[in-house]
Amino acid sequence: MLPGKVLIIGGGVVGFHAAQMAVGMGADVTILDRDPEVLERLDGHFEGRAKTRFSNRSTVQQMICDAELVIGAVLVPGAAAPKLVSREMLKCMKPGSVLVDVAIDQGGCFETSHATTHADPTYIVDGIVHYCVANMPGAVARTSTYALNNVTLPHALRIAELGWQAALRATPYLANGLNVHAGQVTYQAVAEALGYPYVPVSEVLA
User: Fold this and answer.
1) What is the CATH number of the domain that holds 71?
2) Domain boundaries, position 43
3) DSSP conformation letters of 118-182
4) Cα(204)–Cα(206) distance, integer angstroms
5) In this predicted model, what pLDDT tens digit does every residue of 159-170 receive, in sequence order?
6) Are strands 180-181 and 184-185 parallel, antiparallel or unpaired?
7) Crossing angle, helix 36-46 and helix 13-24, to 10 degrees?
8) I need a surface site. Which of 58, 73, 108, 155 has the fewest CB within 10 A?
9) Residue 17 shares a structural domain with residue 82
10) Which of helix, strand or coil describes residue 105?
11) What is the pTM of this model?
12) CB 61: neighbour CB atoms within 10 A?
């Protein structure tokens, strides 16, 4: 039996770990990304066990026709995910193929995506199975909670120690996490996505 063909759109943290899982199961894996440095890093890591290609509309259209599993792992921090797979593209896919939209929390990167739940996780459009569960880590709630706590606790302690304004002034990556303050949107991508005026964090903290 030939290995299943897996297409992963996005080579970030989610895409990388999805590729590791698929490669480990013996799948024929291709990863698409728009960042040459990401593609080079993935090439070096997988050493030919996963293929990489530069992502554009033509490449997505070409690769999706052969794929049996497509994983949408695209993230634009703070903004809605771009719709990279149109409904028209589904027509060339094999019936029963699967789309997994990990970007569903940001609106999804497939035109036919809408959020589902763990209780009713899938639906079918044009013969293609869609899995679009919001908060996918909730499937392993205890494990994901421990992981989240381990990552966020140091930041929470820093805010508790210094106060939120001083902590943000002292820690740029915390300041980057501020989205809204006193009715002002302080994250540019969020402001643009929702049509609100953008107020830089530096003005809020001045």
Assistant:
1) 3.40.50.720
2) 5-134
3) SSS-EEEETTEEEE-BSSGGGGGHHHHHHHHHHHHHHHHHHHHHH-HHHHHHH-HHHHTT--EET
4) 6
5) 999 999 999 999
6) antiparallel
7) 30
8) 58
9) yes
10) helix
11) 0.83
12) 14
